[in-house]
Amino acid sequence: MAVPGKVEWPELIGSEIEEAVDTICVERSDVNEICEIQDGQPASTEECTTVSPVTGQDPPVTVYITYVLNDQGNKQITDPAPYIGTN
């Protein structure tokens, strides 16, 4: 169910990024960019992906996700929780 105005997802800490992105995009259909950054790395190393361009939306709605690599080499969400922010 969409949660209007939801801006962070602490319940997703510990999840893998792929499933978290699916959850976020269902809850906030206006999200159009996901930026991932590995914990402990400078912000300049973030990788951003357009997930659903929304025509005429300015500025874009961007979700920032901090992750660590787990033992299987997958991206696992860590603190801070995924949140909507601005560049």
UniProtKB/TrEMBL annotation:
Record's keyword terms, sorted = Protease inhibitor, Serine protease inhibitor
UniProt-listed GO biological process terms: response to wounding
Nucleotidyltransferase: present as a keyword of the record?
Answer: no
Annotated GO MF terms: serine-type endopeptidase inhibitor activity
Q: Does the keyword 4Fe-4S apply?
A: no
Protein name per the record: Uncharacterized protein
Family from the record: Belongs to the protease inhibitor I13 (potato type I serine protease inhibitor) family.
Q: Which organism is it from?
A: Zea mays (Maize)
